[in-house]
Amino acid sequence: MGKQIKKWFSIAFVAIVTVVVFATNQSTPRRYPARIPVRFWHRWQGDWEKQVQKIVDAFNESQDKYEVIALSTPASGADSKFIMGVIGGDPPDVMSMWNGAIPNMADNGFLTPLETLMSPEEKKAYFNDSYPVIRDSGMYKGRVYGITIGSDLYALYVNVKQCREAGLDPDHFPTTLEELERWGDKLNQYDKNGNLTRLGFVLSSLDYIAYLFGGGFYVHPDGTYDLNTPQNLRALQRIVDERKKLGFEKVLRFNAGLKNSAGAAAWPFMTGDLSITFDGQWRVEELRKFRPDLEYRVYPVPPPAQNGKPLAGTISGNFMIVPSSAKQKEGAWEFIKFWSGLDDPNRAAKFYNLGGWLPLSPAVTNSPNFQAWLKENPQFKAFLQILASPNCKPMPAIANLQFLNDQISRAEDQAVRGTVTPKQALEELEANYKKELDRRRALGYDN
Amino acid sequence: MTTDGPKLNLGSKVATYVVLTLLCLPALLPLVWMISTSLKGDTQIYNATDHGLSLSTLVPSPLHPENYPDALNTLPFLVYLRNTLFLCICTVLGAVVSSAVVAYGFAKVNFTGKNTLFMLMIATMALPGQVTMIPVFSLYRSLGWYGTYLPIIVPAFTASAYYVFLMTQFFRTIPNEMSEAARVDGAGEWTIFTRLILPLSKPALATCALFQFIGTWNDFLGPLLYINDPAKYPLAYGLQQFVTLYGGKHAQLMAASTIFTIPIIILFFFAQKTFIQGISTTGGK
Amino acid sequence: MPRGNRDKAKQNLVGYLFISPWLIGFIAFTFWPFIRSIYLSFTRYNIVTEPKWVGLANYKMLLTQDELFYKSAWVTIKYAIVAVPLGIVAGVALALLLNINVKGMSVFRTIFYLPSIVPTVATSVVFMWLLNPNIGLVNRILAVVGVQGPAWLSTSPWAFNSLIMMALWGVGGSMVIYLAGLKDIPVHLYEAATLDGASSVKKLRYVTLPMMTPVIFFNLVMGIISAFQYFTQAFVMTPNGGPEDSTYFYSLYLYNRAWKYLDMGYASAMAWILFLVVIVLTGLVFRTQKKWVHYGG
Asked: pTM value?
C-alpha cells in the first residue's frame, strides 16, 4: 500500500463521512403534519410490512383527524421493545401483539382495558358479534385487552399431484388420523442412504394437536389445571410413536434441513419437500401469490378414530393492544375499529384478505368482499370451519402463559428426541408449572 | 526498526504460505458464501435437490446483482449510514480520549486506593448488563434521554473499562525510568501523559479506536432499547429488519450484510499498519 | 524516594483527576444502578409498579427448586471451560504464524481478522446456512470425504459444538491483540537469545511466551467474563435454548425471565448470582497472576 494511496484514501474517507453526516436529510416528513399523530407498532416485515402499510394508508385517507404512523419492530424483540417504550415513557399509541404475551402485560397493568374506549353500542356489537374463541383470546380476568386484526389457525395443506402419483385421491381425504398416517407412509421418499428426501406427513405441535385427542391445556378460574391428562398423553404418545417409526434422527435431520429456508417463497410445501403439512391459514394467500400453479387442498386435521374431537385446535395471532400510558387512545381506538371491522365489516374484509388472516366476526366473514375473496381462495374455508367449531379453544388466560407455552414445547421437543418418555415429559411439564405457580403465589400473584 | 518475526529461508517460506493458505479457507469460506448467496436467485439458494459440492455451488448462476439495489431500496440506507457514522465518530472520540486519560491514572500515577479502584473497574466488566439495565434505563428516562442518542454517546465519554484495562496493560510495558526522568525535569503528569506516553501508545489507541468503531458499527442492543424513531435508526438495526418473521429474503439479507461489512473491511485494511505496528512503544528500551 | 504528606496529597489529587471520567460514569451508570439491583433482587418487581419486598424468596426458589437454573449454569460453565482455552491457544498460534516476516502478510492478517468484524446478526445467519444438514456447505464438504455430517443445530451435542466453532471462527479478534503483543517484544531479547545459541523452540518457550503473558492474561480475563455473559449468538441461532436445552445459556434464561416473563426481581437475583460467580473466578485468576504473568521493563 503506497503512502500516496493511503493519504488519498484518508481524505476521501473523511470527505464521504462529512458529506453523509451533514448532507443527508434528517427525517422523512410526515404526510399529514396538521393531524394528530397516532403511533402504531407492529411485528411485520418485508412483503407483510407493505400490506400493513396499505391498511394504514387506507385509514389515513378515510378520515382527516388522525395520522397513523406505522413502525415495524423485529418480531423476536417486539414485546421487550413495547415494555421499554412503556417504562421509557414513550410508548406507541397502539400495537399489534401476539396474544400469548397479552395476559402478562395486562396483569402488570401495562394495558388499557379496551371496553373503556368503546361506546355502549360498540361494546354490545363486540360482545355479541365476534367469534367467541377469538374474543376470549384477547381477554384477561373478564376484561378486553386485545382485539384481533388477524388470527391464526392451523390445518393440513395437501399436495394434489404428489398424492395422485402415490395412488391417493386428495378429494377423498382421510377422516381419521390413523388413515392419514398410512397416507403419510406412502408419500415418504428416501435417498440411497435411507435419508428422507420427502416427508409424507408427520404429526407435531402438541399445543394444538392435543385438542384433537379430546385434551388440551387448561387452567381453570379456580386455579386448578389440566396439563398432564390421559388425553394429552395419548396425543404426545402418538406424536412420538410416529417419529419412532420413521426414526427420531431422520425426522430431526430432515426438519433441520428445511428450517433455514423458511422464507415465503421457499416454504418446503411449495418446493415439494412436504406432501402433507400442518401450517397456518396465511399460507393460502402466499400460495396464491407465489405458486398459483401449485394445486393443493386444505383439510382440518382428522381426529383419531377413538375419543377424538373433530375441528379442534387453539387460536393464536395478532391482537391490537393500547398501552395504559398511551397519549392518543381515541385515535388508537378509531384505527382498531377501522382495521378489525367493528364499524365497517365489508371494508375491513379486504384488510384481512391482504394477509390471509382470520377475521374478528361472522359479519366480516359474511361480507360481500370476504365472500368474493373466498370464492377465489376456496381452500381457506377449512380454517373458517375450525373457527366456528366449539372444539376450537382459546389459550389459557393466565399471566404466566408464556412460561406454560415454553414448557409445552419443551416437553414435546424432549419427547420427540426420545430422551424422555411422553409420560415423563408431561409429568415434568406439570411439575415445573406447579413449582412456578407456587412460587408466583408466594410472591402474591394470582396465577 | 521493526520486530517483524524471524527471517526465513525459502523452504520455510513456502511452508508458511501453504499453511496460511490452508487456514484461510475456513476463515474465508463463510464470507465467500455470504457474497455468493447475495448474488444468487431464490431458485438456486433453495434448490434442495442438489446436495453435492462443486464450484457451481459457490458461483451464482444466473447472476442476480439486482439483489443489491433491492436491498438498498427496502431500507433508507443513507439515513442509517449517516446515523451510524455520527454515532461512531462520537463514541470513538469519547471512548479513546477518556479511556487513555483514565488508563494513565491507573498505570502511572500512585494514589491512595488505586489498586482497589482498579479491581473495582475490572469487576464492572464482569457485571452482566442485565443487572444494571433496568435502573440505568429509568435513570436515562428521568434525565429525558430516552429516544435520543445520549444513552449511547454519553457513557462512551466516561471511559470503557475494557479499553482502560487494555491501555493500562500497554502503558505498564513503557518503562517508568523515562517518566521519572521527565518528572525530575519538572514536567507535570499531564505533560508526561500527552507528550511522552500518548505518542508511544499509538498502536494501543488505534486498537481501541478500531474496536470502538466496530462495536458501535455493529451495536444493535443500544439502539433497540433507546431509539424509537426510524429516522434515528443506525445500520445494524436496519440490518436486523431483514431478519424477518414471515417471508425472509435471504439473498437480500446477504446483500445487505455484505454492504454492511465491506466498509469495515476496507477500514481495517487501511488502518492495520498503525493498528498492529507495535514498534515505537518499546523504542526507549 | 521518601515523600512528604503534601506530595502524597498532590499525587492523590492528580490520580483522582485522571480517573475522574471513569469515576463519574461509574457512580452514575454502574454503582447506583448496581445497588438498586441488589435491592430489586429481594423484591417482586415488574418495572412499572413499585417493587414489593419478598425477602429471600427469589434466591430460595433459584437455589432449591429451579432445575433450569442449574442446567443453564452448567451449559455456561461448560462453554467457558471449552471455548476460553481453545480461543487462547488458537489465537496465540495464529498470531505467531502471522508474525512471520514474509511478503503479503498484511493480506493474510486482514483475512483472519475479517470474521471477527462481521456483524453478529450476519454471522449467525450465514452459519445457519452453512450448517444446514442437507444443503449447507459444511455437510457438503463432509460428504465429499464420505462422512455424513450431523444435523448441526438440531441435535444436542452438535448445537453446542456449532457455537464453539462459530466462536473459533471469530478468533481473529483476540489474534490482533496477541499480534500487537508480539510486536512489542524487544528485538534485543531475541538477539541475546540468538547469541546464547537458543533454538527457535527455545526462543518461543523462554522469550516469546513469557513476554506474551500480560496479553494472554488480559484475554483470559476477558474471555472468562464474556463467556459467562454469552448471549447474542445463542439468542439468534437457538432462541429457545436449543435441542434439549443444550444451548440454554445462563444469560438467555435470565433474559427470558426478565423480558419474557416480566419477572425483574427473579432476574435480578439471577444476575447477582452470576455476578458473584464471575467475580470469584476473576479474583482467582488475578491471584495466579504473580506466578505466571511477566510484565516487561
From this structure: 0.83
Write the class of the CATH domain B70-282: mainly alpha
Does ipTM exceed 0.85?
no
Domains of chain B, residue spans? 10-64, 70-282
pLDDT value at residue A17: 65
**What's domain C58-292's superfamily in CATH?**
MetI-like (1.10.3720.10)
Range A193-219 average pLDDT: 92
Residue A11 contacts B, CB cutoff 8 Å: no
Cβ-nearest to C148 among A193, A256, A414: A193
Alpha carbons A147 and A231: distance in angstroms, whole number: 31
Mean pLDDT for C256-274 is 87
Query: Can you tell me whether residue A410 is helix, strand or coil?
Result: helix
Strand partners, C204: none
Q: What's the DSSP call for residue B26?
A: H
The domains found in chain A, sorted by start residue, are 36-152+316-376 (3.40.190.10), 155-314+396-443 (3.40.190.10)
Residue A415 in 3-state DSSP?
A: helix
Chain A residues closer than 8 Å to C233 by CB: none
* CB-CB neighbors (< 8 A) of A6 in chain B: 270
Residues of A in contact with B93 (CB under 8 A): none
Q: What is the torsional sign of CA B228, B231, B237, B242? A: positive
Among candidates C46, C240, C259 on the partner chain, residue whose Cβ is nearest the Cβ of A80: C259
Beta-bridge partner residues of A68: A38
Q: Which residues in chain C touch residue B261, judged by CB atoms under 8 angstroms apart?
A: 117-119, 122
- Between chain A and chain C, how many beta carbons pairs sit less than 8 Å apart? 90
C143·B53 Cβ contact <8 A: yes
Domain ranges of chain C: 1-40, 58-292
Reference B114, options B34, B168, B170; nearest CA is B168
